[in-house]
Amino acid sequence: RSDPEKRETTKQDEGKSIVLGFAQVGTESSWRLANTKSVIAAAKEAGIDLLYDNAEQSQERQIEIIRRFIKQKVDVIAFSPKTETGWEEVLQEAKEAGIPVILSDREVNVSDDTLWTAYIGSDMMDEGRRAAHWLAGELTGQKRYRIVELEGTEKSAPAVGRKKGFEEVIRQHGNFEILGSYSGDYTYEDGKKMMETALRQHGKLIDVVYAHNDDMALGAIQAIEEYGLHPGKDMVIISIDATRPAFQAMVTGKLNMAVECNPLLGPQLMKAVRDLMDGKELPMKIITSEGVFTQETAKRELQNREF
Ligand code: AHR
Fold first, then answer.
1. Is the CB of 123 under 6 A from ligand 1?
2. Closest ligand 1 atom number to CA of residue 30
3. Shortest CA distance to 198 belongs to which of 168, 158, 226?
4. Contact 31 CB / ligand 1 (< 6 Å)
5. Three-state secondary-structure class, residue 195
6. Where in the cell is the protein located (predicted)?
7. Among 81, 41, 33, residue whose Cα is nearest residue 61
């Protein structure tokens, strides 16, 4: 998926440094902050010139940033697409300029897959499945368990995948029902607001809260406590990311389980950029391997947690 013909002598052969333009999606979560840090540190470590900008949750702004990188004739563009759709035009422009594009942590849904070179990140659908498998293993028996789902940014790859994977597995078990799904932007504040609404609508009927990321789960935990219930006991709370704050919440018994989503993608991204510049073929998808953490394992793992 690279275009080696365009690069008979590589920049590295000529002693020039590689320029990578990185269009980050925002600063919405602990996960995102760790991801940004990882990209910046890895570029420095790899001796790659990084042009970094942040779209702060605006797809329009992310497109503008990518267009600027194209104008600046960077060697490679990487970005974390806010949503799955709406990228055809700008990706076509990058392709015509001969600039390869790497998708970082979120995939796109475009009709022509040659518009992007590689994806580095998690299998979001599998994360949703793993959350549901854990739940199905824990909550068995005759009781019907009612779930509230706190979704991430509408049409973003993690929100789409985590919902699809979770519901696919939940449907296979007769004892679960999704009471309501709410949509936020992966922030603590959104998680709190969505949970307040869910509690107003369903109150004590809620058995399980499935949050598409830790920050929303932590916001929901706050809302549940303010409502006078005990998160982790009166309701099972599960989330995705497994960042340090989630580990702390598991240690204090307020979060029951977190499926890992690894934000430390910087080193893999820099390796992919170098490989591309060396004319090497990249695999279309580079998927990170990740764990599942519970209250039983959280205490031990907390000290090793890097993000
Ligand atoms: O794309 C990865 C997701 O985006 C993370 O799970 C979430 O925390 C972040 O904001």
1. no
2. 8
3. 226
4. yes
5. helix
6. Cell envelope
7. 81
Question: Which ligand 1 atom is nearest residue 240's CA?
Answer: 6
Put residue 86 in one of left, alpha, beta given phi > 0 → left and psi -120 to 50 → alpha.
Answer: left
Atom of ligand 1 nearest to the CA of 156: 1
Q: How far is the CA of 12 from the centre of ligand 1 (A)?
A: 33
Cβ contact 96:71 at 8 Å: no
- Cα(255)–Cα(210) distance, integer angstroms: 11
Predicted model pTM: 0.94
- 241 in ligand 1 pocket by Cβ < 6 Å? yes
Q: Quick one: pLDDT at residue 16?
A: 81
Give Cα 250 to chain centroid, integer Å: 20
pLDDT by residue (tens digit) across 105-127? 999 999 999 999 999 999 999 99
Return the best residue to mutate from 36, 213, 238 for the ligand 1 pocket (most ligand atoms within 8 A of CB). Answer: 213
Q: Is 243 strand, coil or helix?
A: coil
